[in-house]
Structure formats: C-alpha cells, structure tokens
Model the fold of this input.
Amino acid sequence: MSDCDTCVVRNRAICSALVPDELAALGKLGRKQMVSRGQTLVWEGDESLVVANVIQGVLKLSVSTQDGREQIVGVVFPSDFIGRPFGKESPYGVTALTDAEVCIFTRTAFDGFAKEHPDLQHKLLQRTLDELDRARQWMMLLGRKTASERIATLLIEISDRLGAAGCSPIAPFLEKFELPMDRQQMGDLLGLTIETVSRQLTKLKEAEIIELPDRRSVVIKDRRRLENIATAA
Amino acid sequence: MSDCDTCVVRNRAICSALVPDELAALGKLGRKQMVSRGQTLVWEGDESLVVANVIQGVLKLSVSTQDGREQIVGVVFPSDFIGRPFGKESPYGVTALTDAEVCIFTRTAFDGFAKEHPDLQHKLLQRTLDELDRARQWMMLLGRKTASERIATLLIEISDRLGAAGCSPIAPFLEKFELPMDRQQMGDLLGLTIETVSRQLTKLKEAEIIELPDRRSVVIKDRRRLENIATAA
DNA sequence: CGGCGAGTTGAACGTAATCAATTGTCGTGG
DNA sequence: CCACGACAATTGATTACGTTCAACTCGCCG
Done:
C-alpha cells in the first residue's frame, strides 16, 4: 500500500478529492512503483489492466502505425493521471521518458472504488476534460502549424507544465529547464522529423530567442518573441 | 422544457443514465432548439454558457489561428454531448455543419444537476474518455498520415459514425452516405487544403474504391481496400 | 584513444501548398 | 424552361516546406 500522507502530489492529484479515511482506503489499493526511462508501463492495444497517478517524472502516451511511424498523443507530468478506467483496451502505449515514480492501481480495483466516490469521479472528469482540451489544441498544432510554430509551442508548453508541476508557488513557468525527451521524441510529438526539429532549434538559437547549453537543456531568453512565433500571428 | 419521453436519442445520450423522474427533472432544465447549417452555437474563447445534447444533425468543433487558419477538432453526431461543463471558457467554437436540433441547457443549471447525479457524471466521464481516445487517434492522423491515408480514414470514420447514429440495429456502418460537410471542411478536419482533398477523392474514384454520385454523396465500393489505405499498412 | 549513439548540417527530392484557370452545380429570375 | 450568376469543386502548373538520404561533429564511456 501507498503512504499517502507523505505523497508529494497528494494535494494536486485526483486524490485531493478525498477525505483522510477515504484516502487511506484508496491507498490500500495502490502501490508506489519506480519506472525507469524507456520502460513501458502499458502496451498499445493491450487490455487496460492498470491505472496510475504520476508522482515524479514524465511519461509519454503514444500510438504507432504498422509500418513503424509513431505519434506521441500525450505527455503526463507529476500529479497527472494515467490510464483508461472503465473497461476497454488501451488505445495507446505508456512509456517513461525519464525515470519516474507512479502510484499504480489495478483497473478493476480503481473502477470499483471510483464508482462509490463521486467526488473522485468528478475530479477525474475535470481532468479528462482538461486533457481533451489540450489534445484539441495539439490537433491545431499538428494540422495547421508550421515547423517553427510547432517547436516554439512545444518549448512554451514544456516550460509551463514543468513550472506547474514544480511546487514553486510563484513561478508560473520556467525560463531554464531540462527537456524530458530527445530529438526523436520531440519529432514524434510534433509530427516532424528529427532533422527538422534540430534545424528549427538551431534557428531559434541563432535568433537569440533561446540558448541550448547542452542537448537536454533549454534557456528561454526572449519569451515574448517565442510566444509570438508559437501563436502563429 | 423538453419532452424527453419521445426524444429519439434518449436511450443513447447521457440521459439514459437517469430513471424516469430524474429524466423529467432534467427535461425541465433543457429546451429543444433548431440550429441551421452554418449557425454558430458557441464562439471560440467565449465563456462556456451552455451545454447540449445533439438530437439530430452534425456539428463541428473548431479552433482558429489569428491569421485565419482553421482546424476542426471534433465532429459531433446525434446523441453526442456538446460543451465544456464545470466552468472555463470554451476553447473551441461549435457550428452546425447541417441543419440540426439540440437539447440545450445553461451550463450552471446542468452543472448543478450533474453534481447531484453521479450516474449522469459517470456517463459523461465515459463519453469524455471516448472522445479523448478519438481525439488522440486523430492526432496520429494529423501528425503522421499521408493525404490519401487521411481521406480514406475520414470516409471510414464518417461511414461508421453515421451508421452508429442511425437506429438500424444491424448496420455497423454505411456503404452509401451523405457527407455532412463540404470540401473546405474536410480539409479543415484533415489538415489539408481543399485542392488536395479533391485530388485524393478523384484518385479513389479512379481506382474504383469509391463513387461520387454528387458532391455530397459517397458510395464505398471496396471497403476492404479503403480500410487498407486508411490504416497505413 | 577509439567507438558508439545522439545531434547537427548539407544536398536532393517529393508531397502537398499555392496560384490560377476551368468546369460543374445550384438557385434565382426572366 | 432556360439563361444567368454565384459559389463549389476540379484540374493544371509551379512553388515551397519538410522529408529523405548522407556525411560529419560532438560528447561520453570504455
């Protein structure tokens, strides 16, 4: 069972809908688990056997074609919920982009618990609605934005979400951060190739909008201009 | 108020979660409304004031950039739910693609009712999860599929969803149907231009996979081959 | 120091976009 | 009923953006 009392995401994850003794009951159903970078938690097409909360780290949700093309359809950060509750097979795989820690439940146990806790379901519904909005924004990016707009949008998005995931109450976003993915994964998320990602990053660097101290780090030097590029004015 | 007893979608819409007197109570909050083709029910960015069930017709959810590019991020059919419950502004506009009829609620009235009816919320959650899965599949299309794969996927999808929306218990899909949108809207949904849509349809016609009796009709002559193209083997 | 994987850079290519002209369809009024 | 105009769709020619293929660089660990 999980020790919810000391969980770092207990106030932000869906668990925050519960009163202490409900939380204790849920905790009994879950267990904390480490997932190392590259490890796959759920395979695309498999029956949905588990759901989880992300405690730390970043994971991707991805879909593949038979001939090997991949599209990342979601990225989850600490306090986000993973999985497909209430039956069905998982239409996407879940793989750790960084070493991560999750609080994992069997789907059936979680489903049963959720059915009897409307507040939990309500939180889950709100999260799912938010996730849907985010997915739709990303559809705009994939369908209509140019390569440079896509890269700029991604950098803003990661900066924002890492800022929100961090516990700092003041920073709504980060101006320096570590990319939780490599170039290939950026391409899979943006619908671009690795080469195009690289070229666009170089262009932003040469325009002095960002710096790239090393291959995983980004410094946003001119957020205003980056946002202008991202929103495709 | 709406006359739920005779509503054609009462067994498929989220209302099916309710027992008769609950249904009557919800019916008092809603009213049926006609929406004619092209009419916009909700504007992108506006505060989310209403939600609704689709009774008949087809509507689009769409997002635009400042410079006028548009991406359709969802298409709703009879029995589907429209809107963004529980606060927030609507991140997309809702516009009728065909003449339509909806059962409309003010958001606050619906939210209040939903809070006290966990079964309704549960149905809504399931629908939202399904919608999210569909959005993610579409992200794969937008990010990684070629023009011909996109067109084939769209035709299959419309065939399936019109089949499911129709009341025929035997037809899982239709082999002849009316497109609920014009070429421009197909492009906005697929992330393509109008010209590319037209060319790809012509190619499918010349390959004798489909027929195009008139500009709004499609006959699928060889569904197997169409599916092969769609799934990007 | 050597070798490997990730990333960058370059050159050629190809798919879909853009620009432009034509055809087709529908609704209206003569 | 047909002629007309407006708009939707198709078709063609050209362009451009991102992909593909290929060579090279960098950083890291043995």
Notes: Chain A has a mean pLDDT of 95.
